[in-house]
Known about the structure:
Keywords: Hydrolase, Manganese, Metal-binding, Polyamine biosynthesis, Spermidine biosynthesis. It is built from 11 helices and 8 strands.
Amino acid sequence: MRLTPTLLGASSLGPFAAAWQLPQNALQPESLGLGGSHDGQDQRPFSWAPTRDDDVDIVTGSQFRGLKTFANLPYVNCFSDEEQYAQDQKYDIAILGAPFDTATSGRPGARYGPQGIRTGSQRMFPGSYSIYTGESTLSSWARVVDAGDVGLTWFDNTVALKQLDKAHRVISSRPAANASLSKTPRILTLGGDHTTTLSALRSTSEKWGDVSVIHFDSHIDTWDPKVIGGGLSDYAGLNHGTFLHIAHEEGLIRNTSIHAGIRAPLMRRKGDLRNDMRCGFDLITARAIDKIGTDGIISKIKERVGDSNVYISVDIDVLDPAHAPATGTAEPGGWTSRELLTILDGLSGLKVVGADVVEVAPIYDNPGETTLLAAAEVGLSLLTLMIDNPVQSKADKEV
């Protein structure tokens, strides 16, 4: 096959591929290892192997090594006070697993979600480059680490959420690695059922003030606790369908929040939507994408949240079950993984102070791990949004 500039260069490609344009000398056959000079200079035989023990690498170069972390990022014990001021223990963004699923109304199993999402991310590496932008986001200014999972009891939801509240406070109170950009680390949470978002919103409110929530889901999750669970007890009233109602009652979120991808039935014909509006939410249905496309969805979200600080929560059941079968309350008629990722990438520039991807229950996935792969890509997109725009916290504004 003849290698030509048209084939290898960026002259015939779109704007996203401009970053990949090869230098002219890279088009020469010898630069591609396809022939050219055979004088034997600076050529390594195919049978080459390290002969010195010092040259044998057992640390890098494989996804099957060391601790399993999200995107093979470094692990830091963010819950320990020891050496928290050492530079290699500092971070700007921490990934936190929240293995909790005892407040779900559907199939359980999301407590295994954090480890499942990490499994789906094992072909991601900090030094990888996006085919769309040519950027290596995880290798830019922000130090991103995996904090592992927080230990949560599964015998008492009230205690478990207090444990998660504390974990968020501890992680976000550590000194940031690049304090000149922001003194407060941000958190990407891997759930866990959607109740875990309440702890994250409490933490972001404390550090950044109230936020606009961008809520990707098939369900509204603003149900009055008296409608779902609360008729039994106050304890039962806090669950994965009521947490946004409770967050509004606690003053954690702004009246400029928005749902996207909604398609599940309501419990009350009018009462649920009235309560949803009272909680500060506008709504984009899943089928809206057929009329306005991904660009229209992006525009509506940006117009709604404006210049406010934003928290993005992604319930994996926003995707169609064909793209994410491994979840507790799947609803047909959802978005494709490509549509969701395109929408997320289109939100670049927003002031994202925290995010999560939740409701992943690996036991229901297929052998190809479709849901885990999709959730990992969502996590990477959320990290990219956070890295693209450093956000100053209350601590940065203190005199």
